């Protein structure tokens, strides 16, 4: 039934796991966004290497834009810790660069703080340049720059 969690999803971790393991692979993106809206606090603070935002609506807009691009056979999700005050999970995505044959595989780790049954702070850790090596010249240049650092 759209808009509700299965009865076994009694914690934030289990809800995020359901959303990520069931809805994303099934490409049920509207339901994904709706249910993520139920686990995020209205004033959630979200940070990743390329975004920082406050507020559920802003985070949901970003998820609605990026999650469909990551929903493919290489997407994976693993719930690591499902505590009352914090939840930790990891994911792997593969993003194809439009109009090319290049594909980026990125591994991420998420730490979320929970208060009153909602995620109030979510920090995603990943290297957006992790797979740049698939692009000739740029991959070599990026690795050289890192070695010089």
Search tags:
six-stranded mixed sheet; alpha+beta; Nuclear Transport Factor 2, Chain: A; 149 residues
Arithmetic mean of pLDDT: 89
Largest sheet geometry: 6 strands, mixed
Count of spatially separate domains: 1
N- to C-terminal separation? 52 Å
SSE order:
HHEEHEEEEH
Compute the CA-based radius of gyration: 16 Å
Structural class: alpha+beta
User: Which spans have pLDDT < 50 for at least 5 consecutive residues?
Assistant: none
Number of distinct beta strands: 6
Q: Strand share of the residues?
A: 25-35%
CATH architecture: Roll
Q: Quaternary status of these chains?
A: single chain
Q: Which CATH class is shown?
A: Alpha Beta
What's the shape? globular
CATH fold annotation:
Nuclear Transport Factor 2, Chain: A
The strand line-up of the biggest sheet is 2-1-6-5-4-3
Helix content: 25-40%
Counting DSSP H or I runs of 4 or more residues, the number of helices is 4
Please describe what this structure looks like.
The protein has 149 residues and is α+β, with helices and mostly antiparallel strands. 33% of the residues lie in helices and 35% in strands. A six-stranded mixed beta sheet has the order 2-1-6-5-4-3. The longest helix has 15 residues. The relative contact order is 0.16.
Could you outline the blueprint of secondary structure elements for this entry?
Blueprint: H1 12-23, H2 29-39, E1 40-48, E2 51-54, H3 56-70, E3 76-82, E4 86-96, E5 103-115, E6 118-125, H4 138-148
Parallel strand pairs: 1-6
Antiparallel strand pairs: 1-2, 3-4, 4-5, 5-6
């Amino acid at each position: 039934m759209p808009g509700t969690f299965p009865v076994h999803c009694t914690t934030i971790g289990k809800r995020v796991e359901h959303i990520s393991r069931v809805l994303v692979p099934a490409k049920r993106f509207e339901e994904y966004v709706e249910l993520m809206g139920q686990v995020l606090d209205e004033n959630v603070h979200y940070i990743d290497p390329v975004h920082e935002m406050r507020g559920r609506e802003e985070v949901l807009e970003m998820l609605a834009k990026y999650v469909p691009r990551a929903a493919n056979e290489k997407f994976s999700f693993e719930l690591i810790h499902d505590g009352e005050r914090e939840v930790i999970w990891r994911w792997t995505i593969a993003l194809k660069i439009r109009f090319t044959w290049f594909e980026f595989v990125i591994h991420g780790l998420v730490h979320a703080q929970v208060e009153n049954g909602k995620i109030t702070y979510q920090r995603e850790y990943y290297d957006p340049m992790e797979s740049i090596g698939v692009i000739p010249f740029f991959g070599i240049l990026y690795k050289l720059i890192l070695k010089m650092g």
